[in-house]
Amino acid sequence: MSHTHQHHYKVDVTWTGNQGTGTKTYQGYGRGHEIRIEGKPMLEGSSDPMFRGDASKYNPEDMLVTALSTCHMLSYLHQAVLAGVVVTAYTDSAEGSMETDVHGGHFTEVVLHPVVTITADSDPAKAQVAHDPAHHGCFIANSVNFPVRVEPRIVVESH
To answer: In whole angstroms, what separates CA 96 from the centre of its chain?
Structure first.
C-alpha cells in the first residue's frame, strides 16, 4: 500500500513594470517583477531580452533550467551516499533549448553537464551509474514534458 504525501510551495510574484499606462501597448510596459518566498531573499525577475526583458534579471526560462540542474544535483548527492561514493565537488553547466513560433513556445530539451569530483578511494563506475537513479528521482525532471539529458563527467581526486 503506497502512501502519498502532499507538498505545497508558496511564491508571491508582484509585477513592477507599470510605467504609467499599464499594458496599453506591447512596448509600453516593463517586464520587471519581484519574486518573494517567505524567509528568503527577494529575486528580481524579468522576461528574456528577446521578449523586451532586462538581461540583468532572472527570467522564467533561466529558472526552469536552474530548477532542473539543482534538482538533479541534490538527487545525485543522495544517490552518491547510497552508492558509497564520496563526492567532494560538483559543478554543472546546464543548457536549455526552447522553440518559439507565432503560436507561442516550448522547451525542446535541457542538457545537464555535471562534473563530479570524487575521492581517490571511491569507485568511478558507481559514481557514473548513480546519475541514472538520480535522474529518475528528480522531482522537477519528472514534472516536465520534454527530455532532460544528463551528460556527466567523473573526476577522481589524486592522492
So the answer is: 9
Question: For 45-89, what is the HEC assignment?
Answer: ECCCHHHCCCCCCECHHHHHHHHHHHHHHHHHHHHHHHHCCCEEE
Q: What is the pTM of this model?
A: 0.90
Q: What is the mean pLDDT of residues 102-131?
A: 96
126 contacts: CB under 8 Å, gap ≥ 6: 83, 84, 85
Q: Dmax over Cα atoms in the chain, in whole Å?
A: 65
Task: Find how far residue 20's CA is from the centre of its chain.
Answer: 34
DSSP annotation of 26 reads G
Name the nearest CA neighbour of 32 among 12, 50, 52.
52
Pairing of strands 33-36, 12-15: antiparallel
Distance CA 157, CA 159 (A): 6
**pLDDT interval class at 3 (50, 70, 90):** confident
82 residue type, one letter: L
Place of cell 563506475: 125
Residues 71, 138 contacting (CB under 8 angstroms): yes
Sequence letter at residue 62? D
Strand partners, 15: 33
